[in-house]
Amino acid sequence: MNNTCRSVAFASLLLLAAPVFAQQTPAPAAPPPPAPVAWQSLSPQQQQLLSKFGNEWGTLPAERQQALARGSERWLGMSAEQRGQAQDRFTRWRALPPEQRQALRGRWQQFQSLPPHERAIMRQNFHRFQQLPPERRQMLQERWRNATPAQRREMVDHARAQRQHGAGRPPPPPHH
Q1: pLDDT single digits (tens) 42-100
Q2: How many Cβ atoms from other residues are within 10 Å of residue 92's Cβ?
Q3: Distance of alpha carbon 147 from the chain centroid
Q4: DSSP helix/strand/coil, 174
Q5: Each residue of 57-75: b (16+ CB within 10 Å) or e?
C-alpha cells in the first residue's frame, strides 16, 4: 500500500469515527501549570525580603515562586505586631514534631475542603471561643480532651442545636 492509499484510508477512518468522537464528552481540561514569577517583577521590598532566594530564584518551581511572592506581599502588608505574632506562630510550628505537623496539615486540608458556609461557621465559633475568659477556655479544652468520641459527638450536636435555635432559647427536648 503506497503512502497516498494509506492517507486516504486514514482520512476515511477519521470521517467514519467522527460521529463517535462527537458523542463523547471531552475530558476536563487540566489547569494550566503555574507561571513562574520573574525576580524583576517583585518590588524592591519583596526582593530584599526574599534576598536569600535571589541567586536560586530561577531554579525554584513556579509554585514555590508564587507562594513566596504572595507570602512576601502579606508580610509587607502586616503591622509590626502582626509580624511578631506570625514569627511566634512560625517558631512554635518549627518546634512541633513532624507527625504533629502532618496531623495539622491534614486538619487544614479537611477545613479547606468544607463548603464556604461551614468554614464561616467554624471561624465564627473560633472567634467566639477566643472571646471567652481563659479559665472557661481551659475548662472546655480539658472537657473535650477527656471526652469519648460519643461524648464529643453529643457536644457537637448540642452546640449545633443551640446555634440553630438561637443562643437565647433552649433547644427543644429530644424525641425519644
Answers
A1: 999 999 999 999 889 999 999 999 999 999 999 999 999 999 999 999 999 999 999 99
A2: 9
A3: 28
A4: coil
A5: beeeeeeebeebbeebeee
Burial of residue 42 (number of CB atoms within 10 Å: 0-12, 13-18, 19+): buried
What is the distance between the alpha carbons of residues 86 and 103, in angstroms, rounded to a whole number? 20
CA distance linking residue 139 with residue 141, whole number of Å = 5
> How many angstroms separate the CA atoms of 112 and 119, rounded?
8
User: Which grid coordinates are listed for 76?
Assistant: 509587607
Residue type, 11: A
**Are 36 and 7 in contact, with CB atoms under 8 Å apart?**
no
Query: CA-to-CA distance for 11 and 19, rounded, in angstroms?
Result: 14
Top pLDDT among 24 and 60 is at 60
Task: State yes or no: pLDDT of 123 exceeds 60.
Answer: yes
Instruction: Check pLDDT > 50 for residue 110.
Output: yes
| pLDDT top residue among 11 and 30 | 30
What residue ranges in the chain does DSSP mark as E strands? Answer: none
